[in-house]
């Protein structure tokens, strides 16, 4: 597949030279996300690594109003994650599954509902799976529409960040994933956030229209 020239910026953050007396922690993964599918007549995402090579992609033929699930695939087209809408939920709620969606659920992403328009919380993320991990929760804060938001753990540390790229608009942005969560799950969270807060989906009217869909 030919490369598309939507290149990431230089390494971010910078790596320091390794020390002889201690092991250097693994740095975050920095990806460039293009909110566009490379396939004709498709919606989705094309994701590049720090070298500008294709890392992941999302190709959706269904319109946003009818979409019940979105699949993240690797370069060869193998399903990595399936992001599926929770049926009959009282709020916008998506569940991220391993692989093609027949395997175990990994994360639950629920839109934050508040009467305060000033609330900076967008969504709540729960780590699913083992009993030990079932209580682990994250909060998404900031503005996805402005491409300036972060997924934070209980200590307030960012495990995923969505950052603007200078002079390229909202359809191309940077995704920073901490190794504790990993880049595929970070991209799964971006998919869920885009379904909740993408263009035309941020209002209460839009939320009510989508709540009872399939």
From TrEMBL:
Region annotation (Disordered) ranges: 1-28
Native source species: Panicum virgatum (Blackwell switchgrass)
Homology family: Belongs to the LOR family.
Origin superkingdom: Eukaryota
InterPro entries per UniProt: LOR, LOR_sf, Tubby-like_C
Matches recorded under SUPFAM superfamilies: Tubby C-terminal domain-like
Protein name as annotated: Protein LURP-one-related 8
Lineage: Eukaryota, Viridiplantae, Streptophyta, Embryophyta, Tracheophyta
Pfam families (UniProt xref): LOR
């Amino acid at each position: 597949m030919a490369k598309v020239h939507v290149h990431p910026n230089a390494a971010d953050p910078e790596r320091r030279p390794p020390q002889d007396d201690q092991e250097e922690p693994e740095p975050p993964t920095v990806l460039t996300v293009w909110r566009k599918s490379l396939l004709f007549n498709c919606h989705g995402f094309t994701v590049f690594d720090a070298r500008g090579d294709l890392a992941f992609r999302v190709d959706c033929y269904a319109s946003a109003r009818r979409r019940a699930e979105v699949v993240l695939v690797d370069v060869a087209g193998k399903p990595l994650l399936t992001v599926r809408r929770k049926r009959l939920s009282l709020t916008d709620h998506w569940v991220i599954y391993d692989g093609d969606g027949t395997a175990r659920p990994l994360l639950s992403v629920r839109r934050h509902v508040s009467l305060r328009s000033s609330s900076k919380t967008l969504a709540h993320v729960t780590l699913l799976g083992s009993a030990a991990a079932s209580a682990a929760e994250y909060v998404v804060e900031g503005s996805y529409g402005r491409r300036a938001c972060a997924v934070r753990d209980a200590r307030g540390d960012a495990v995923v960040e969505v950052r603007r790229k200078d002079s390229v608009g909202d359809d191309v942005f940077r995704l920073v994933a901490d190794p504790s969560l990993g880049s595929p799950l970070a991209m799964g969270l971006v998919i869920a956030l885009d379904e909740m807060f993408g263009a035309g989906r941020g209002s209460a009217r839009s939320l009510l229209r989508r709540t009872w869909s399939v």
